[in-house]
Amino acid sequence: MTPPRTFAHVDTWVFDLDNTLYPHHVNLWQQVDARIGEFVCNWLNVGPEEARAIQKDYYRRFGTTMRGMMTLHGVSADDYLAYVHKIDHSPLEPNPALGAAIAKLPGRKLILTNGSVDHVDAVLARLGFASHFDGVFDIIAAEFEPKPAQQTYQKFLSQHAVDPTRAAMFEDLARNLTVPHQLGMTTVLVVPDGTKEVVREDWELEGRDAAHVDHVTDDLAGFLAQLSPH
User: Fold this and answer.
1) What's the pLDDT score for residue 9?
2) Which tens digits make up the pLDDT trace of 111-162?
3) pTM given for the model
């Protein structure tokens, strides 16, 4: 067994957004998920059950439902993103402990998300640490090709001049850490707090023991605080 990679050499910290920088049990993504279902219903003129099956099929096959809808049904990305991210962000509460832990990390902090910059801005404003990040690479910057596509990570690394062998990636989906690990990044899987109820697909919770996952945590603030120079 190869020992897990460490953090002493890391100078770029890369974070997913949804269910990573805020707790899974807030279930904010559940609102987006419901809006996606409504969009599929309306666009394809199908019932809720059929729309749900299509939504989840495209999510697994294309990385996002949006990519499937664009590829197979000619949906406009702008229309889709505007609709599905029209949600109530009020369940999110400021998280000063996580903000302080991120602020203390040595080097750059970036966000790599399959969401949009507008969604990132709304979430970070609620959490109270928008100023801690040096850049955002969103689904538009990725030219609508979502993680876990290899070219999306390559575009991100190129655009932000990131050396993957000196970077760490934090994600809530193990499959989105496969390519980062292959590229040399230290990988951290952020899992739900076991005491809270979360709304997830079974496959989304898989991969904790995968070889491409160096570390697993259910307390991101505590995990980062241990890494920061005091």
Assistant:
1) 94
2) 999 999 999 999 999 999 989 999 999 999 999 998 999 999 999 999 999 9
3) 0.88
Which residue's entry shows tokens 């040595």?
A: 106
Q: Is the pLDDT of residue 199 over 90?
A: no
